[in-house]
Amino acid sequence: MLGRGAVLSDPEELLVYESDGLTLFRALADFVVFPTSAEHVSAIVKLANREGLPFVARGAGTGLSGGCLPAEGGIVISLMRMNRILEIDYENQVAVVEPGLVNLHLSWAVGQRGYYYAPDPSSQQACTIGGNIANNSGGPHTLKYGVTTNHVLGLEVVMPDGDIVWLGGKTRESFGYDLAGVFVGSEGTFGVATKVCVRILKKPQAVKTILAVFERVDQASAAVSAIIARGLVPAAVEMIDQLTIAAVEDAFGCGYPRDAAAALLAELDGLAVGMDAQVARIVEACRDSGAREVRTARDETERQLLWKGRKSAFGAYGRVSPAYMVMDGVIPRTKLPYVLSRVNEIVAGHGLRVGNVFHAGDGNLHPNILYDPRKPGEEARVVEAGAEIMRLCAEVGGSISGEHGIGLEKADFMPFIFSAADLEFMHRLKRAFNPTGRCNPGKIFPTRKSCGEAGPVAYRPHPIEEKGLAQRF
Amino acid sequence: MDIAVLDKLRAVVGPANVLSDVDLAPYVVEGRTPEAALFPGSVDEVRAVVEIAAGADVPIVPWGGGTAAAVGTPAPRAGLVLGLRRLAQLLEHEPGDLTATVEAGMTMATLQSALRARGQWLSLDPPDPEQATIGGVIAANASGPRRHLYGTARDLLIGVTVVTGDGVVVRGGGKVVKNVAGYDLPKLFVGSHGTLGVIVSVTVKLRPLPDDERLVAVVFDRSKDAGAAARAVMGSDLIPNALELVDAEASRALGLDSAVGPGGCALIVGFDGVGEQVEWQCGELGRITAPLGGRAVRPLPEEAWTRLASAARDAFDPPAAVMRLIVLPAAVTEAIEHGASAARQRGLRSAWSCHAGVGVITAALASSGALPEPGPIASVLHDWRALARAAGGHATLDWAPLAVKSAVPVWDDAGAAGRIMQRLKASLDPHNVLNPGRFVAGI
Q1: B273-315, pLDDT tens digit by residue?
Q2: Cβ distance of A182 and B184 shorter than 8 Å
Q3: Is B231 on the interface with A (CB under 8 A)?
Q4: pLDDT tens-digit profile of A229-242?
Q5: Residues B340, A140: Cα–Cα separation, whole Å
Q6: A375 vs chain B: nearest CA distance in angstroms?
Q7: Can you give the pTM of this predicted structure?
Q8: Interchain proximity A175–B274, CB inside 8 Å
Q9: CATH code for the part of the protein at A7-80+428-466
């Protein structure tokens, strides 16, 4: 069906596909297949249905919730060979791409003409557009530009029964139910996207990046609210705490003051006219909140260096801890001071350390719990602390995932924020797309029995992290 | 409706909140009088009403301000109007979070003024803000000129609470601006026209009010040139919040008819931001459009924003039909030219306005005489839909008399996606009680 070299079934080769970026969970597929067309995918899915095998699509495997694991065995459909850009329509500011295209490669392809693809997850050098669709991925610049769903206009999808269907299209508006809208973020449980229409944006005329340094974490949190209160919508507002700053400085020397309790990295973009006035407002907001130092990157080199500090934070944790677990939760922005201090208490209460580097402007937390997997019992404490942090996010009116998805990892936490009726409604929605449940089983919904072999095991870095190709977010 | 059922409903919401018989005049849609109209005062009352109506097999028509009540295939049965006007509280607005949670029945105008008092706004500007409710705007996916920069309801809705056809309260999304936990239920309800659940409250993302905002017009003698200018603006560094094209007929609503001659077109552009940004962009706009045949940039008054949202529809009083054509942004002027010419060939005048940057066109057809003949009107509408489809798009008949609707389907053919929509409806509203028979694919 697929030709030679497009099917793996040797257990040793299958090992490569037993986990994603969250190596706590593992599950082995029976086959991994590499289709090159929607017709291939359709034939694979029909075969899986005939044989009664579950199947799951997989992009680069950079996900952080175990979402692309073959939880019940069966077929992993790797989309890495479907990585072409099919059309770039500058006049209508839309591109049609295959799902295996690496996120950043799209921005490279349209960059010369002054365009870019806005969603920028930190793994964008490796992660694929298809994977971004499954998880409705975000990134630092989603504060102003929105997440993946705000940039996807339409998709060609192989449905769980093997039918090939278009949901939406190249136009900015479709009619009837927003099927493309519900497909994005469905974590691969509604079918397999085989073509994607995405918006491409004009690059902004001007960009300014500001670093504000604080003696206390609560001052940095207050500055986030102060920036918002001054009527600004920055492109990004990121926070980095002391432990993370120290790790980053040890590793890369990006110019963050190592004795600071927290730093904010804020970015403004847009018209060159009026930019200085807006920068001045951010500087003022930070100073009024008690910033000890506020500086604006003078040139592109300094700007890149500041961002390097932010983007390489996860890699830098390797210097201070043999392992870490990245959490992903969202809270209302105004709850930042309270939640950050509670997160520190929770983790300390389990005898562990935490580094925070996150999208403060969105209220999207990423506490990184540091631990040593060789120490007996430490991993179990990490998992417990993580669950408490999720419960805390839920208690303050937040969510248990801002961009990593539920996958296997958080399925049991869903009742923290959704009632049985909410989950039942979602399940009915799932049945409309995926009545047999063979398409990516065992994900999102709280049920342990379907997780098969998957379960917590020791951390190890993802291969692409080891090669320095991508960072964890 | 069975008297016993009506009595049960009265007991739930109180007799004062139930309308029947002659009082139902405002709720008559396309000549059909609903069996009753009732106005629950709490989510629990909505739940109870849905349960009773569903149990008695009476269709439920969720009703906000009624501005989109005539959108859709004519109803097979008028059913029960479930009005949300008593659920009209702003439940939460924390400016520091840039979010608000609001009950579905609050009008857009009331919501915006409450938000404005605290320096913020919901960046959604549909027509008829005094009547349209937030719940209705989301259910109808209504939008206005500022969608060019700020998107539509799907980009702003982050949480939704609905009562399902089973009378169960379901919440989707949440109250935070970024959230991927579970399926994106808010997307499901945007544009669903009350067919999947009765929206009782929503949580939306807000924006700070800009320092300054201005709406300006550049007039062109030929619509082709105006279209080229719109594309030039899109390819420039300018960041307009609205980019509209309005033909001579539609420009009457904006008081520009003396400036826009026959065959001409006005390019209407909005800018917001700090003062010097607005100023600079207006200047740039002149420099970009002048070589393409644009005359001087002229400012429009504040009230032009609301008139703009319905400029084509309001060109004729009343229009014979209103259609929305969705095409690729670069194809709008061609669609307008061909569409207007198709109408002229049948001896009918038409008015056109569009959100040029996103390819959303509204076209209105004038009635030719005292009694509009459905024949030529239907023919023109068929032509319009065909040209939208030929341009890779689709068309929805937003408004037309029954005689026209019987000749021209309201919704385009959704093809294979339509079958998924049917499965979705069957799964989520298995007893088919929510606004049945009015939506896409016979839903």
Answers
A1: 999 999 999 999 999 999 999 998 999 999 999 999 899 999 9
A2: yes
A3: yes
A4: 888 899 999 999 99
A5: 46
A6: 32
A7: 0.96
A8: no
A9: 3.30.43.10
